[in-house]
Design brief:
Chain B: Keywords: Membrane, Transmembrane, Transmembrane helix. The complex is a heterodimer. By secondary structure, chain A is of the alpha/beta class. In chain A, about 40% of the residues lie in helices and about 25% in strands. In chain A, the strands form 3 sheets. Chain A has a 6-stranded mixed β-sheet, with helices on both faces. Chain B is mainly α. Chain B has one domain. In chain B, helix 7 runs antiparallel to helix 10. Chain B starts with a helix and ends with a helix. Classes of the chains: A alpha/beta, B mainly alpha. The interface between A and B is medium-sized, with 34 and 26 residues.
């Protein structure tokens, strides 16, 4: 499961003086669901365009399924399924015809896959309705179906829940998780709805102004976002002893910078402060911390 | 490449606009020619005159070029092939081949129907010798290549501008410029270099079809190379 699917080394993309991606180093491992987070213009879609071959890097190296070089990269792209920004659909055709065109183009021999994929995204009853009459949500589902038709090993979805109603969002979330769990598909999902991404992704990549700000696992994020009292004293060891003996809690963690994170007594901050002072500790910082993914992301980019 | 051609063909056959345009072209030509004596001519005489009256057809066919190719850029459907790992030159070539076949269909449908109708009704008009058959084959090939040259203008506009509006607009503007040049003081000279002018020269027998074939091939090849150059380096947004 540790095999890398995609690697970027010093990947750079410049658009007429604008640095869309600046020396990005990134490794995507097989079997994970990556949440791609960043503001508008952070470089998410540029990165996706580079991976999918719609755009060319200004500098740096990309490796896809262990292969690099323009020709080899293009060959390997046959193993990818993607939906970049809005779903690219033949508007004068039906959902079935759209998938048939994709099937022919991908050289998939089995026609059964069309019905199976339509069922997977919940679009079996669209009949002869042309795509131009589809709602935004239906188009989004069909776009996902187009990306899934070739049973990809690596699925890239740019804003997949745009235009979906709440039940559609839940269905797509379940679908992404199922594809990852049952078929072992690696997903790279970019979304502005961070709360939604939080429920899907197993890894997060924070992008800001063309740089990878941070890469972290779900566990690391949970750890960072967990609500706690951040205690900074002159003696971290003594602080933990006081917490154990006086407040009778072992629910804390000492961070590398010496800050002690206390995960309970959140409503008793004054008591915590008093106990520490009474023990002769010099408290230099005491604050309630912990974020949602959204808050965490905002704090991170504000810190830059 | 076969799969790409197949998918382009699949899309063309299901494109209602193409079939509607084909019907409109036949109808418009019927209306334009119904007042004259065209349908009382022999098949041979009809074939000599018809291409000079096909200016509107050529313009309408160019509009379809904008729709067929420009739409793929505008809706980003062209990107499916690229993100699926196909080489850009193959993607472009498949699109061009099917588009040029479709374009020739639009431009040549009415002349073909007219020739068949006039031949059945009034006879061919002159002895239908083996030499004549070869000559007709050459004329037909020359016309197809000249049509391709006209179609390639739409293709170049499509890869340069990647939207429907300009892909339709630019060829029409160029088309009118060509018409103006062909109605000016140096019309004959220009006709030897411009595909539309050469069409008239080939069909009325002023020049040998081989010149038409040559001019059509050169224009098509140059425009194809330019399109390929632009498309293979294009940042697709």
């Amino acid at each position: 499961m540790e095999e890398s699917i995609f690697e970027a080394k010093n990947l750079t993309k410049k658009y007429r003086g604008t640095m869309a991606l600046d020396c990005v180093n990134l490794t995507l491992r097989r079997g994970e669901i990556y949440g791609f987070i960043g503001e508008n213009g952070a470089g998410k879609t540029t990165m996706i365009r580079l991976i999918t071959g719609l755009s060319f890097p200004t500098d740096g190296k990309m490796t896809l399924f262990g292969k690099s070089g323009a020709k080899e990269l293009q060959k390997q792209r046959a193993r990818i399924g993607c939906m970049v920004e809005t779903p690219a659909l033949y508007k004068n055709m039906t959902a079935q015809q759209n998938l048939e065109a994709q099937r022919i183009q991908r050289g998939i021999p089995d026609k059964e896959c069309i019905q199976e994929t339509l069922k997977l995204v919940g679009l079996t009853d669209t009949g002869k309705k042309a795509v131009r009459h589809f709602s935004l949500g239906m188009r989004q589902r069909l776009g996902i179906a187009m990306a899934l038709l070739n049973d990809p090993e690596f699925l890239i979805l740019d804003e997949p829940i745009n235009g979906l109603d709440p039940s559609g969002i839940v269905e797509i979330r379940k679908l992404m998780k199922r594809l990852n769990r049952e078929r072992g598909i690696t997903l790279l999902v970019s979304s502005h709805v961070l709360s939604e991404l939080y429920q899907t992704a197993t890894q997060y990549i924070l992008l800001h102004q063309g740089h990878v700000l941070e890469e972290l696992t779900q566990q690391e994020l949970d750890e960072k976002c967990k609500r706690h009292i951040a205690i900074k004293t002159n003696d971290a060891t003594k602080t933990t002893t006081v917490l154990e003996s006086t407040l009778h809690t072992a629910h804390f963690q000492v961070m590398p910078d010496g800050v002690v994170r206390l995960y309970d007594n959140l409503d008793n901050m004054e008591d915590v402060a008093r106990v520490l002072s009474q023990a002769g500790l010099l408290v230099t910082g005491l604050s309630l911390a912990g974020d949602s993914l959204e808050d965490y992301f905002l704090h991170r980019i504000e810190g830059e | 490449m076969g799969k790409l051609l197949h998918v382009e063909w699949y899309k063309l056959v299901r494109d209602k606009i193409y079939w509607i345009l084909l019907a409109i072209i036949v109808l418009v030509n019927l209306i334009i020619l119904s007042g004259g004596q065209q349908f009382s001519l022999s098949g041979y005489s009809f074939s000599k005159n018809i291409m000079q009256k096909e200016i509107i057809t050529i313009m309408m066919a160019s509009i379809y070029g904008g729709l067929f190719v420009g739409r793929d850029f505008e809706d980003c459907t062209l990107y499916h092939e690229i993100t699926a790992g196909r080489s850009r030159i193959e993607v472009l070539s498949a699109k061009i081949i099917v588009f040029l076949l479709a374009l020739n269909g639009l431009i040549l449908i009415f002349p073909m129907l007219g020739i068949i109708y006039c031949t059945l009704k009034n006879g061919w008009g002159i002895p239908f010798t083996a030499g004549m058959q070869f000559y007709l084959l050459f004329v037909f090939t020359a016309l197809m290549l000249l049509n391709c040259a006209i179609g390639m203008i739409s293709m170049l506009a499509a890869v340069c501008f990647r939207d429907v509006g300009r892909t339709i607009g630019i060829p029409i503007i160029l088309f009118f410029i060509m018409i103006m040049l062909l109605n000016g003081k140096y019309a004959i000279q220009y006709a030897h270099f411009l595909p539309i002018g050469m069409m008239a020269l080939v069909t009325n027998g002023t020049v040998l079809p081989v010149y038409g074939m040559l001019l059509g091939s050169v224009w098509s090849a140059v425009l194809f190379m330019l399109s390929a150059l632009v498309f293979c380096r294009a940042e697709l947004r």
